[in-house]
Write a structure and sequence with these properties.
The structure holds 2 protein chains of 2 kinds. Chain A is mainly β. Chain A is built from no helices and 11 strands. Chain A has strands spanning about 5, 10, 20-25, 35-40, 45-50, 60, 70-75, 80-85, 90-100, 110, 115-120. In chain A, strands 2, 4, 5, 6, 9, 10 and 11 form a 7-stranded mixed beta sheet that branches. The mean pLDDT of chain A is about 95. In chain B, about 5% of the residues lie in helices and about 45% in strands. Chain B has one helix at about 25-30, and strands at about 10, 20-25, 35-40, 45-50, 65-70, 70-75, 85-95, 100, 105-110. Chain B is globular and about 40 Å long. Classes of the chains: A mainly beta, B mainly beta. The interface between A and B is medium-sized, with 24 and 28 residues.
Chain lengths: ~120, ~110
Amino acid sequence: QVQLVESGGGVVQPGRSLRLSCAASGFTFSTYAMHWVRQAPGKGLEWVAVISLDGSNKYFADSVKGRFTISRVNSKNTLYLQLNSLRPEDSAVYFCAKADSYYSYHGMDVWGRGTTVTVS
Amino acid sequence: QSVLTQPPSVSATPGQRVTISCSGGKSNIENNYVYWYQQSPGTAPKLLIGRFDQRPSEVPDRFSASKSGTSASLAISGLRSEDEADYYCSTWDDSLSGWVFGGGTKLTVL
């Protein structure tokens, strides 16, 4: 079955960096766009970034633009999120999610369980 | 302040029908597909309604969605205690070139 497993979260000081990974299985990873979505403690969902199937197109939320980068290695079925210049307000559970097609403007149909980032 | 506006909470008794609204604009809801997600405490969001208002096979047909102009809504009929959760609408925004979520609606089954 389709499975997404995030890793790489942890406690980090403000201004430092972190790289999150998302290992995908159960589907042809290279044919779908992929998203990152985050949720601060007690808050709602906030979309972070999306990357097209081949990595040629990337879109970011204004709140992370210029600080976060999204990438993927299709040969490894892995999605990444590089978090730089971290701020306390970046503290959240970060979810990896599969798009339901190769289009970046199509939504998420399968979600991972998330990895927690705490900036303090 | 979310681009998409949802009521913070709704409540109903078992067996009743409840609707959750999602209000946006031309650049998001009117021009794009609206997705609905369900999230129970401590778990990942789960897709309820996707493109073309279609449900994944595991989602019961008690859940349905509709859209009119710049607003969308999720309807849940035959309410059950296990439907108690947070519900989010989401869509692409052409002006922002990014995805937006509603603030979420907490459904309480009385």
